[in-house]
User: Fold this.
Amino acid sequence: MAHRLEPLFRPKSVAFIGGSNLNPALKYHRDLGFEGPTWVVNPKYETLQGYPCVPSIEDLPEVPDLAFVAIRREAAIEAIAALRKMGCRAAVCNAAGFAETGTEGGDLQARLVAAAGDMAVLGPNSVGLVNFVDPMAAMMDQFGVHSVPKGVAIVSQGGGLLCDAVFSDRGLAITHMVGGGNQAVTGLEACADYLLDDPRVTAVGLSFEGLRDIAGLRRAAVKALKLGKPIVAIKFGRTEAGSRAAASHTASMTGAGAAWEALFDRLGIISTASESEFFETLKLIDSGQIPKGRRALVASVSGVLGVMLADHLSAGGFDLPQPTGERAARLRDLLPSIATPCNPQDVTMAAWNDTERQTAIYSALLEEGYDLALMVQNYPRDGMWDVSEYAAQVEALGAACRGRDVAALQIAPMVDCFPADARDHTQSLGLAAMQGLDECIRALGHAVWWRERRETLLAARPERLSEVPVAAPEPGARHDEAAAKAMLSAAGVAVPASRVTQPERAAEAAAEIGFPVALKALDARLLHKTEAGAVRIGLASAGAVREAVEAMRAEMARHVPDIPLNAVLVEAMAPDIVAEVMASVTHDPSVGPVMMIAGGGIEAELWNDSTLLAAPFERAEIARALDRLKVAERLKGWRGRPAGDREAALDALEALAAFALAEGAEEIEVNPILVGRKGALAVDAVLKLAERKERVA
Assistant:
């Protein structure tokens, strides 16, 4: 059975619905060479751009596979309803003025969705799509007339990035370009999922402000991991100002940047921060030159360029091992007398344009077992120099790398110093042709990260990544600390021994537990007890407890007069504390369940030592997140201090995460988890569960 998006991407026939505004789209469709039947629906013309016109959708001679609808919004809804009724399976709604404009437009968009039914529909507010491997364009913009045998597919919410992809002089081979617009019916995730199955697509570039089907993204990410085809993302609207602009542009839910980064990391999706970085990363992946490790060899005929590249590689986490032993001795015989065996290797101008000599030099260097080899040189502008003189360097590196398990690249540090013919020559030799120093280093880092991340995720049953519930939990009531801890304890989170009692009996409860104790006011409304004067710690006697109760009553009357001191929690103090860890699980409206882990205590926000993890919350992933934090050094035994019980901390975090997902917690926070030399205890908790769960608890 054909994929439901097949008629969108590979239609056998196309109908365009609109007026003279269709002229650019029709011309591009014709010039690109679509071979199937094409009609135009317009009552005023007999032909447009040489295509026959019919007065209405009902007058079409056949049911089209795909319709491009470029008429006013109300009429577009009626047209899509008529197309669906006659059996058309896909449409591009170019009309704008829907949810991106506010309430009225949102109502119209809902009508559009209803009219589309089970059709595949891009838009509304979509520029369209173009296919360069099975030539077809249903697109308002012009992206050049050409075809490619393979390359990357770019799926973008807006058309601007698609234009930049073809306007920029980078030599990126593109198979498909898709503008999703408002994604009211068919989302970018579904398009990416479909395109990953195409054997001619080597990677998918995903550009967006917001996505609506996170479950669909998860499924596509799992497919990408299994197929070995990276998804490279660029997310716009990461800041508050960017989110406001995105909302006014497409009415999409954009969300916080940190939550999206956590989701990308969890799914093995490469995240980029600029268009140049996005395009260069896609180009590197399409070239197939993905390093298997971080041991880099730098070659040049310019000492300055080599040193500059070495600095950037080192800062990017790559190693530059030096040639050793017999290889270094052999290099001394091969190199010009003014050169020294080293990495980066400057062969000097004495070996300029000497392919045979440079090949021997690079071959000797590569016997050290590098993971990647990089030739660095900028090219002159047309007419300034005979660029053929620059060929020897890259030909030598290509010859030396041939047959070796090493990624090979040529880098022009200046993005505009790599002309198209030189790029083509480089690529013909099997090297990636990279432009821009910073962009290239980030692309290399992304590629190595993806290779390593993919291996990890594939080893841990990647299907789990698509099994995470994405629906938001039902709103619920907040539990007081004692009730929250009781539920956490039942779920396997260790908590201190404690008693709930009236303030007047706190000293008696403390004696039963054993001194020293902590004393806390008990009320679900108390989210920050320290600021309210509602907590005392280290109470070593019954008298100290009684004094603490009176002081607490007075401070609460001053700071939170609407919360009386009616009940207290008396708790054993945790011994031998090495570090404090804070953890919370919430439901992000854009990406679903996320877990925050941080250095804990009252200074958690001050130190900004935190990280986010997207579900599923497996132990290995929790450990990986914990190790990103500064507090991890304390757990290891910082500067000779005792080490903390890291495994006990992971036990607590793992149990907390499992409880949150199993119970559909709206909000859960433990701050802090006190990690001792042995054991870890959750000593404060905030918890909101859906009403249906409260009845079960």
User: Anything to note?
Assistant: DSSP finds 25 helices and 30 strands in the chain.
